[in-house]
Write a structure and sequence with these properties.
CATH architecture of the largest domain: Sandwich
Strand order of the largest sheet: 6-5-9-3-2-14-17-16
CATH class of the largest domain: Mainly Beta
Structural class: alpha+beta
Shape: globular
Strand content: 25-35%
Enzyme class: hydrolase
Number of domains: 3
GO molecular function: alanyl aminopeptidase activity; metallopeptidase activity; zinc ion binding
Number of helices: 11
InterPro entries: Aminopeptidase_N-like_N, Aminopeptidase_N-like_N_sf, Peptidase_M1, Peptidase_M1_aminopeptidases, Peptidase_M1_dom, Peptidase_M4/M1_CTD_sf, TAT_signal
Oligomer: single chain
Number of strands: 25
Distance between the termini: 75 Å
Helix content: 25-40%
Keywords: Hydrolase, Metal-binding, Metalloprotease, Protease, Signal, Zinc
Pfam families: Peptidase_M1 (PF01433), Peptidase_M1_N (PF17900)
Radius of gyration: 27 Å
CATH superfamily of the largest domain: tricorn interacting facor f3 domain
Length: about 500
């Protein structure tokens, strides 16, 4: 730029400023246009998930749950209150909560009684006054909780909801059974911290996700237990249990607090396998990086259900898993621990992304098991490859499940095979970089299949879209890199 033009430009600017000032004094005064106020409208009754369209809710976001339970005795209904702190993401004339079963008593919004209606699992709440976009509000729902209320699925989940034990209860919220426990936004992408306040008889212990904040004995002999989840969590990862428990505290790698919650009669019989958790943590941290939460532990389930769950920071492991063989026990323990990285810390964007969570848990539980007396990992992958076309036909491709087949074998062994194929394609060193980038880059967030494809491509320095999409969505199983001799059986 030529410097000899600067004075002329300055002069022009000065003249323009003077003219503007004169215009400001001589122009008629006009009022600013009023800001557009959004007309209140109903929040969406669901998020439109392909598996469960009405799960979750639109129009607001939950900032925190407060769950108050006055637990009485096994299989006995009790009083409960859920208080929800939220903020409106649109101007709301009404909104929905996911709420199944349980006897509803009252609902207030910002302290004023609200009008309600129920249809299936949808509780529609109409506040006394509409809620402005961006405003904070408080919903309080009083109801009777029934600790015998369960539902059933014909896949790996089996029964879910409230699961009775001989002297109390545990919770199986996956996939969408949290609504049987408390009202909320019951979808894995919807995360919020939770404060639990559980009152029990004096001879029972209550436990929940996160940290024990206080234990308060009341004059009537009952005890109030308060827990803070510490980090936000999806509703499918909630755990609260009541029973005659012994709480066993220890330390993991780097001084990580460990807390096992064990029925009194099972403390000694399960001690040997439970003591392996520090080794499992160390093994996984070497591959995935730091454990993503502030504490961990195992809740031993005194039930006949053979289902373990990755409930956040307190995995539920059935007693049968911890009373059987060491190989089987470790495989299941490592599986649920792996979920703390995949599915818990990095939550699912939609149920179609379940393959990311279950595939990784199965990949690492089988890899660990091979190194500790279990079956050969490659042989298991070869067998999964052989059956993959049949699984695609019966259960849907890994990232394209149907609702009845959501928790069938394709989401486990079949999805672990996708990760095996990726490792064969990019090499072990690059694969490990992808894994670490995923759990660190999306820590505390939600992510989905396309996010995984994009991140893998970025880390590998090559476009993996054309490689991964046929594996995740195709009707036919692609060739396995590095194994031209592997053959897929035809689907029948």
């Amino acid at each position: 730029m030529s410097t000899n033009r600067t004075p002329r430009r300055r002069a022009g600017l000065a003249l323009a400023a003077a003219l503007t000032a004169v215009a400001a004094f001589t122009a008629p005064v006009s009022q600013a246009a009023p800001a557009t106020v959004q007309k209140p409208s109903p929040g969406a009754p669901g998020l439109g998930d392909p598996m469960f369209p009405l799960d979750g809710n639109g129009g607001y976001a939950i900032d925190r749950y407060y769950l108050d339970f006055d637990w009485q005795a096994p299989k006995t209904p009790f009083g409960a209150t859920t208080t929800i702190k939220a903020h409106a993401t649109q101007a709301l004339s009404r909104f929905n909560l996911d709420f199944g079963g349980n006897t509803l008593h009252s609902v207030t919004v910002n302290g004023a009684p609200a009008t309600t209606s129920r249809s299936g699992d949808e509780l529609t709440v109409t506040p006394k006054s509409p809620l402005a976009k961006g405003s904070s509000f408080t919903v309080k729902v009083a109801y009777t909780a029934d600790p015998t209320q369960t539902r059933h699925r014909d896949d790996a989940i089996e029964d879910y909801g409230w699961i009775p034990t001989p002297d109390g209860t545990v919770v199986y919220p996956q996939p969408n059974g949290a609504r049987l426990i408390f009202p909320g936004s019951d979808h894995p992408s919807q995360r919020a911290p939770i404060t639990f306040r559980i009152t029990t008889p004096g001879d029972r212990t209550a436990v929940a996700n996160g940290r024990l904040v206080s234990r308060t004995e009341r004059p009537d002999g009952r005890v109030r237990w308060t827990y803070d989840s510490e980090q936000p969590l999806s509703t499918q990862l909630v755990q609260l249990a009541v029973g005659k428990f012994t709480v066993v505290e220890s330390e993991g790698p780097g001084g990580l607090p460990l807390r096992d919650v064990v029925p009194d009669a099972l403390v000694e019989p399960t001690a040997a396998y439970r003591s392996l958790t520090p080794d499992h943590l160390q093994w996984l941290q070497e591959r995935l990086g730091p454990y993503p939460f502030d504490r961990y532990g195992i809740l031993v389930g005194d039930t006949d259900l053979g289902v373990a769950l990755e409930t956040q920071t307190l995995s539920l492991v059935p007693k049968a898993d911890l009373l059987g063989t060491k190989v089987d026990a470790e495989r299941n323990m490592v599986h649920e621990l792996t979920h703390q990285w995949f599915g818990d810390s990095v939550a699912l964007k939609s149920w179609s992304d379940l393959w990311v969570s279950e595939g990784h848990a199965r990949f690492y539980d089988r890899l660990y098991s091979e190194q500790h007396g279990g079956e050969n990992f490659e042989a298991l992958m070869k067998a999964a490859y052989k059956a993959h076309d049949q699984w695609r036909r019966d259960y849907g491709a890994p990232a394209e499940p149907t609702e009845p087949n959501l928790f069938k074998r394709m989401r486990y062994d079949g999805s672990a095979l996708v990760l095996y194929a990726l490792r064969e394609q990019v090499g072990d060193a690059t694969f490990q970089k992808i894994e670490r980038a995923w759990v660190s880059g999306f820590k505390g967030r939600t992510a989905g299949t396309q996010d995984f494809i994009d991140l893998a491509s970025k880390v590998a320095g090559q476009d993996l879209e054309g490689f991964l999409r046929p594996w995740l969505y195709g009707a036919k199983t692609p060739p396995m890199p590095g194994h031209p001799d592997w053959v897929v059986d035809p689907a029948t």
